[in-house]
Amino acid sequence: MKNKKSAFTMIELVFVIVVIGILAAVAIPRLAATRDDAQVTKAKVLVSSIRNALAMERQKRILRGDFKVLTAVGDSTNVFGNFYDTDGDTGVGVLEYSMKSEDEKDRWFFSEGTGKDGRDQYIFKSMLDDVKFEVVSGKFECDTTKTNNTNTNGCTQLTN
Question: From CA 138, how far away is CA 82, in angstroms rounded?
């Protein structure tokens, strides 16, 4: 009797490698899309948090008898650091943990006085292009009036 060794043939190994390659080709783009979706969701939650914080601060000030309109929610150091009103007075922090202004993809960037009527802008840089927000009449609104911010889809995704 001969001793028979069992092993994989070359064809079986090539077949397994091809199947793994196909699975990887399908999975990698889906993982990349999931990451982008997560960044957009994170920005969307942050927009909601800022809007809620502005509403609460406005209500607190009204209860104190202070009717000054809030005009900004941060500065060049901390994008969402403190509230500012029409007299330049500051309030408590907008978020529990302020965010650094970073001019990079998937980050928030503060741009002083570049918005409509010289308002400060808060720009989310993402795959959606630059989506710009301003504090208008005490509300955190997406700015679609600028010619370089025609991406209303970005505004829609972050505010709906």
Answer: 13
What number of residues does the chain have? 160
CA gap 57, 67 in Å, rounded? 11
Tens-of-pLDDT digits for all 160 residues of the chain?
566 677 888 999 999 999 999 999 988 887 777 777 888 888 889 899 989 989 998 898 899 898 888 888 888 778 888 888 888 777 777 887 778 888 888 888 888 877 777 888 888 887 767 888 888 888 888 877 654 445 567 788 788 7
Q: What is the pTM of this model?
A: 0.71
Alpha carbons 122 and 150: distance in angstroms, whole number:
16
Where are the extended beta strands (E) located within 24-138? 70-72, 82-85, 90-93, 107-111, 121-126, 129-136
Q: In whole angstroms, what is the distance from residue 127 CA to residue 95 CA? A: 25
